[in-house]
Description:
Elements: E1 12-17, E2 38-39, E3 43-44, H1 46-56, E4 60-65, H2 70-79, E5 90-95, H3 109-114, H4 117-123, E6 127-132, E7 136-137, H5 141-151, E8 155-163, E9 171-175, E10 181-186, E11 200-211, H6 212-223, H7 232-243, E12 246-250, E13 266-267, H8 272-281, E14 309-311, E15 313-314, E16 317-318, E17 320-322, E18 325-326, E19 331-333, E20 336-338, E21 341-342, E22 347-348, E23 353-359, E24 364-365, E25 370-376, E26 381-382, E27 387-388, H9 392-398, E28 400-401, E29 407-409, H10 411-420
Parallel strand pairs: 1-4, 1-6, 4-5, 8-12, 14-19, 17-20, 18-21, 19-22, 20-23, 21-23, 22-24, 23-25, 24-26, 25-27, 25-29
Antiparallel strand pairs: 2-3, 6-11, 7-13, 8-11, 9-10, 9-11, 15-16, 28-29
Amino acid sequence: MNIPSNRLSTRAMAFILAGGRGSRLNELTDARAKPAVYFGGKSRIIDFALSNALNSGIRKMAVATQYKAHSLIRHCQRGWSFFRAERNEYLDILPASQRVSESMWYEGTADAVFQNIDIIDSYDVDYVVILAGDHIYKMDYEVMLREHVENGADVTVGCLTVPRAEASGFGVMQVNLAGRITDFIEKPADPPGLPDDPQNTLASMGIYVFRWKFLRQLLMDDAHDANSSRDFGSDIIPTVVRNGKAMAHLFEDSCVRHRPDAPAYWRDVGTIDAFWKANIDLTDFDPDLDLWHREWPIWTYSESVPPAKFIHNEDSRRGVAISSLISGGCIISGTEVRNSLIFTGVRSNSYSTLQSAVILPYATIGRHAQLSNVVIDRGVTIPDRLVVGEDPEQDAQWFRVTEGGVTLITQTMLDRRAEQL
């Protein structure tokens, strides 16, 4: 991809915060951080932030990791190793390595950047784009960078327009008619409305643009503040709102759409229900998130596997998939698959049915299994004749059943069940 040299993205770096567990995903993050969780058939959640940066023209990136980072680091090494230092391109993995103090891990999002100031200095950039590594969306950061410079802002905050009734779980902006942030409130009980739209409010996406010299000094000052929690949302952004010029950037203005009337798609897949729904939504005839959009691809590690294979063509033993996504390396053997998303290397055996199932890589589905509204973790072996999705109370004896009626199945749960039956 040839990027014009006058783009601000060529003078910027992306710093991706990818250290969080994502505890609301329960057992899906027992062995991996939330940004490393699988999504969309072959990707990981972090691929969206990284791909947005790459497609925007940013060629200098850093990924800060902390919680159970091996899976995430391995993915970045395998899927994102095409950066070349001789072309002034970098992707650095920055684990919490006690570089500042032998007793300190990353104490917050701002501290994760502060502890790597010397590395960012070595990039010789003018702007830093701070990104959360755990959201699903497509966005051109160049648009936000240009708005930041044109406004002469000290910080520009990426914002979603959300109904006030749904905004209590976000950091929320109060803005004036010019888009200047006059107050930044973390998870308020009564979010403020917009000046010209009191039923809606602006919620932070966890995306911030700074001039590096300005942010560098902010971080140095914050590190010496004994009362700081070392967090962008709680400390850094409110400080700029009080003492500088903080501007809101509307996601609608930089969202990458596959058609002009498509909605501004952004998802926090931080719960099992949200994760399941966002994956199942991809099976729609025309999904709001278009993974087939060639002008803004989602880059990832692509395993070398054969095409998906469907075998058997008999009554009740027909390998078939309807309104579903089936990844490479799968063998659908005499199984009926409907409205499901099947990741790489899954093998499903005869006489089984899968309805609204999200099945992570290299799982095996036994014969005569009947599974609906499920999320199945990587490498799980589903025993023959297992029925899940018909009786929530019975399912809850062995598996995790969510408020939305989705059942999460892991190998540990199945092993425990086998021991007790």
